[in-house]
Amino acid sequence: MRAIALGLGVILMALQYRLWFGSGGVLERYLLEQRIKELKALIEERRERNLQLAAEVEDLKHNSWAVEERARRDLGMIGPRETYFMLVP
Fold it and tell me: Are 27 and 21 in contact (CB under 8 A)?
């Protein structure tokens, strides 16, 4: 009788190990849920950036002032009849 109880105890412990730490177990599920949360946050961040870029593209397509502003900011362009002063501290 004692051997049967011991055998059942060992089987129960093996099943518990698989439940908590085995493939498809509780620990793996928790780690996957955390990864899903991280990826959803990353997706949302990139979605917002894509919306900003799409708005900027629309401005550049339809507004000449947006092209001029971008050229001044990124390329340092100076318009005709303008003087550029660089102040050095």
Answer: yes
